[in-house]
Write a structure and sequence with these properties.
The protein has 321 residues and is α/β, with parallel strands linked by helices. Helix content is 40%, strand content 18%. The protein has helices at 3-6, 19-26, 49-66, 74-83, 98-103, 151-163, 182-196, 208-222, 224-229, 247-258, 279-300, and strands at 37-38, 68-70, 86-88, 91-93, 109-112, 121-124, 127-128, 138-141, 145-148, 201-202, 233-239, 244-245, 262-271, 306-308, 311-314. Helix 3 crosses helix 11, helix 7 (182-196) packs parallel to helix 8 (208-222) and helix 8 (208-222) runs parallel beside helix 10.
Amino acid sequence: MSETAAHIPPPVRRSRGGAEARRAARSGGPVRQQAFIRRNVALYEPFSNEQLELIEHNAELVLEEIGIDFRDDPEAIGMWKDAGADIEGDRVRFPKGLVRSLIKTAPREFVQYARNPDRNVTVGGANTIFAPVYGPPFIRNLDEGRRYATIEDFRNFVKLAYMLPSLHHSGGTVCEPVDIPVSKRHLDMVYSHLRYSDKPFMGSVTAPERAADSVAMARMVFGDDFVDSKCVLVNLINANSPLVFDSTMVGALKVYARANQATVISPFILSGAMSAVTVVGTLTQILAEASVGMAFAQLCRPGAPVVFGTFASSISMQSGE
């Protein structure tokens, strides 16, 4: 080595972030939660007014002429009869305008209150709320690959959602913990949301009794009067498409609506298998099913918060995939 080279100082290493910077940020204090998003741009309208009117007109025809089944729930059938619907066994047909008139009592926006008031979210209007995935039975990690989920996985996902600033909600069934019996699984899941997160969360809908347990646990945390007057739970109620609400979903809907808790009324549709192949036909059915579910929530308790939800995908008519 030359004398000149020996006196050249080592290069100064500049910090470029990376894993060390991320670790430092995580250990530097509490995570700063981002607020839910308020949209300031206009919505993209994929349909003209004439097309929307056609879909709405067709949905009214479906409700009036075909109707929707409310399976194995005599109380629900009686409630619809008292509201002016036409009843034939489990089939309910709705005079034109009945469903829309009932939905008018639903709030345009509502607040879902969290255990931490700074985490409250406003649902509806120009607001967008990000939440974790719902319902996967499997998890995948680097060590084991794909396997069934456990309650420990569930707790870890709740903790991760709590730590992510861009997620405004703790979600519901972030995975399905199959190591716990179904009869008590919902208790562990709701408890995990309450213990490991202070964000808003979802309750159980797999049986009316489990919905009631979710409401009871929320009352232990928030208080009876608070829960009766404010929304602290949101829940997913699926129509059993095509054109059926079963007793499990209707029973859970009644529990939550009567407790003044929010329900996301969401038809579950694979186009071509559970609805028409066409986009307009599928949207017609979605509107009919979701509207009836939201209207039924208002029969249970006028003013109960509801969300128009939907799941619509497609299926190959040749392969079934």
